[in-house]
Queue: 4 jobs
Job 1
Amino acid sequence: MGYKTYVDLIDAALLEGKEIISTGMKGEIRRCQMAIEKALAGMDTAVVSSGDAGIYGMAGLVLELLAEQDLPDKVKVEVIPGIPALSAAAALLGAPLMHDFAVISLSDLMTPWEIIRQRVEAAAKADFVLVIYNPKSGKRDWQLEEVRKLILKFRGGHTPVGVVRNAARAGESIHITTLSRLDESQVDMLSIIIVGNSMTRTSGGRMVTPRGYMEKYFSKKVPVQNAELKSKNAVQESNY
């Protein structure tokens, strides 16, 4: 059971001998309810989501429907963890999520735009690294630019930004730019955007958000091993 686009991504060998039911966009409640009914009929049923089922996936809706129908004790549910798009995208970009980050979807199908805007502003003001899901669609093409301008109130235009499309899928693309140069034409619903915080930098073509290890353990003081080496070199130069 799943959204047709995600079901089509499954290896055909895994689907042999199984009943396949898929629905299109906005059919979430229907397919989750159908999955519950199949389970009640005694069938092992898998509700397929992309990434991780508990992150913008169907796990929550299944549990909500079971609670609404007083069925939690009658249907055994196992939520199987997956690799969320934010983790796949971050790995391809380098290590941009080494410190605190916030994840926000720009889709206003379920959440009013004003609430989304407030969350973006709060996260930007608090200097979180920002992971943006559902940044742009064919009909919803203005929110990303508004979000970019909003973040620019709290961060410089040089802030690193990573755009990953089709993370860990066929047609994967990776692009690192800056907040001031973010090209919206490269972004769609298959894209994940990661906006660095005030400490994020690029190095060797990768994004890195320092956790603070270097500052804590490698301060301006010379590390012991380097100090000993310098001391030996000084003695050799003195003897010479």
Job 2
Amino acid sequence: MADIKIPETFLWITEQDVCDLIDLSGSVEALEKGLMLEADGKAVNMTKTQTLWDVGSLNVTGAQFTGDGLVGAKVWSNANLGAAPIIVMHGANDGQIYAIVEAFALGQMRTASLSSVATKWCSAPDADEMAIMGSGHQALPQVAAIDSVRDLKRVRVWSRTPANRDEFVALLRDAFDFEITACDTVEEAAKDCPIITTFTRAKEPFVFADMISPGTHINAGGAIIPTNAEIDQGVLDRCDKIVCDNLAQVQKGSRELMEYAERAGSWDAVIPICDLVKEQKPRPEGADITIYKFMGMGLADMASAVEIFKRAKAQGKGHEVPHPHRSKPRLT
């Protein structure tokens, strides 16, 4: 076997580069392509690995995109609400570093893209109103995600902290033309609302079956560690379709779905979003509730990162950084 030629440099792609190179629609397009590859067995997700401590967590996700000659991993720590994620991309055939991508904006767009794709196939085609529950840094991209696939006319906002809710309402009113309504309770936000997105740090369920009207689609994006939950089991019992980003991942990380599967005796009712995209089937006629549970998937990050890397190379973006070269370790 020939010796691997180590490149002199690799590409460092900054947050600003990412924002210059791709927008939400581009991220959605890259995601759908990646999900189709996964459904066809041509891309493979790496199940999220995580370790927890009293104020945070260390997280690693990743994926193979060997058809594009790339594999990669995203690594980040959450500590006291702070994070600085990066994606390291290697060559699938030589193991060398091809790029490091700063991934905060990428992650926001990736998460929004997952909601966008799920909502396109699970919500009623004429749905024109959503409720967003939670007002953190993911909330604005989540509203944009739903607006990209449904003609929104009204958005309801609920947050556990009224001051945060009101600040977010003002932000939405600056960003969008549709009606924005501040809600004092979860019940008020959920009542007769066809699309509900939750993105909170709730420790216990706060969305219950008696709050949800028939015909609703829910995007459940919070509760990404096994100690947390947003959605009560009664909601899942009413679901005609339960979709997740990655089955192996929710089997070890989603308290809501782990409890549901334990009661059901199997995971048969839970399908991955790649199958949803491959099916290309709209919401079932007369469906009661559908839900999409997503926790952040390495394949989705890599789908965006691969597209960003290709665009960066084509447009001369990013910064060349010296590639690591081996030195002899001191063993004695």
Job 3
Amino acid sequence: MPHLIDTRSLTKDYVMGTNHVLALNGVSIAIDEGEFVAIMGASGSGKSTFMNLLGCLDSPSSGDYLLAGDKVSAMSSDELATIRNKRIGFVFQQFNLLPRTSAEDNVALPLLYSAGLAAPERKQRALKRLQQVGLGERIDHHPAQLSGGQQQRVAIARALVNDPSLILADEPTGALDSRTSIEIMALLQNLNRQGMTIVMVTHEPDIAAFASRIITFRDGKVISDVANAPHDAQAQLEKLNGAAA
């Protein structure tokens, strides 16, 4: 059975004027279905470039990227768009929600690109995912009526609405306070326990500690790739609740 993610000697270089920047330099990583992987590294290490390639937002200069055995690195722009819409869910630091749109409609937005999907079914799928992230009572709320943590939950529901095989989370707690960050990590851990594969970029070691594998980049290369005994976010939340009682 193929790995869910398999990158083979990926390189990515950029030419800016007379400068040549090698953002990725021969990165080979295999990630199996059901893993929760944290990607770490300083600014300029290559971690964001790597995530852009995994998300089919960019193409490598050389090397191969296979997603569930399909050679994504050789696909056309239209094929890559289909992969992004159908097989990958994205979670961003700044939530990227439409401000004048309800939580339900924000979650349903990716479904507008699914041909033949009627409005009632889009609504049903969006409601299901909002209930899954604990916001079934907030479907009519606009982003300004939600806390930062609730907005990120809406964003996670949106990432899940097309039943992807992979969630890519780029600094998902970067705009949140410490307690809310743990709440979001508890949600991601729960999704992972249900079988969802998650790859998360973070610069925070205490957030990476919730993943079961930590890969560190430096100067466009992988310098470490280690298994991790993940901290239990739900247990931390319960401890915080007990201390506050």
Job 4
Amino acid sequence: MNNKKIMQGVWIGLITGIFLALFLKLVQAVMGNKVYTLLLNVDYIPIVKNYQFPEVIEVSFHLIISVILCIVLVLLLDKSTAFIRNRVMYFSFLINIAIGLLLYPTTLFSNRTPSFTDAVSLFWWIVGHALYGLLVGILLKKWLSKGTQC
């Protein structure tokens, strides 16, 4: 494994993870939908759900997941075909919409998060993940266009 690739994934994960957190925090503050709370929610993880963490720790959990995801994307990009590399923005966009859709049902495990049937919260949740995926794709494409070999 190339340390440069790992560090690229770390930076992309931190930048985009902070963006997603701030976007969903803004949506929650302005619209009242608990999408930021959902982002930080760990009520579906055994043992961890028994603890109340400060916001900074919950954000750190989110950033760790974002960094891991972006490292995986960088490494997958390294092993991908030219077809995928040339469409990295679309690939990242679609993957992150899928992740958003897969994570939204975790609302069922908490009374602090939006209701599973809250269509407006689902909309903002998917918009946030779509923007996150687009930003990840833009940063990956920028990295590729600088001539960095994946």
